[in-house]
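Much of our argument rests on the idea that a fold can be written as discrete symbols. In the encoding step, the backbone of a single protein was reduced to a row of integers, each denoting a local shape. We regard such an encoding as a compact summary of how the chain folds. The record that follows shows the chain in one-letter code together with its fold in token form:
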Amino acid sequence: GQIIPVAQPVVTARTGAVAHIDAARGWGQVAAHLATETVLAIAQEQGLGAVVIDRCNHIGRLGEYAERIAQADMIGIAVCNAESIVAPFGGRGAIFGTNPLAIAAPRGADEAPLLVDFATAGIAEGKVRVAAAKGEQIGPGLVLDRAGQPSQDPQALYDGGVLLPFGGHKGYGLSLMIELLGGALSGMAPSALPAYHGGNGTLFLALNITAFTPLAQFRGQAEQLCAAITASPPAAGYAEVLLPGEPEQRAHALRTREGISVADQTWHALEALATELAVVLPAST
């Protein structure tokens, strides 16, 4: 209910290699696309750029923006905070958002950029929601129920539970810093504080590779590293060694060919909403 559909984001301040964007509580994706193009322009001029987004609603998949920066022959780094749903290491109260981090870098000229994009929680909240819709359990060590006890029931999260950070104290520390980099630096505030009013406090960074080293050299070394990784012998139980992002690329190709599977519970909820709003849904198979 806090999205203002007609609001347009604007660049409100520029100091050297830093810019500030006010998303004006409009669509977060629109503001994030403006931030991406702004940080690219700054990095082209200055060698590196930093852009924050304030009053910003949900921007969607963070990796999309880092990847766009990498497609422009730069290194893209993106972080954002989100509504509190993750406990600190050793705690059971919701203090942090899932607070994702995305980093993308170009590799060989004919290859898609390398992209790392993950939540600092042990699992993205959306994946918990999908598991709940499918009636499936989640893995151990990801959720505490409302009593602070470990649970593999995804519904435990929505009944007053919390997510746990990935990697124990390491994910906890990273999530904390993203609250400051994304939340405090943008003006949105860390999500556990009263000044936070929902959405994604966001920071985008762009490093113009040619300001640091020859682009061809960087691309060549990135490609050599990728080749060394994929040529390394797989461990027991693995058929091959994949690069970050490869599973998602394969899933994208599969779903482009065969369509996207939607859980029955989710589809029924969409049908009910479509009926309420008098929207005709496409036929499902």
In short: Helices lie at 28-46, 63-71, 125-134, 155-158, 169-186, 215-231, 246-258, 264-277.
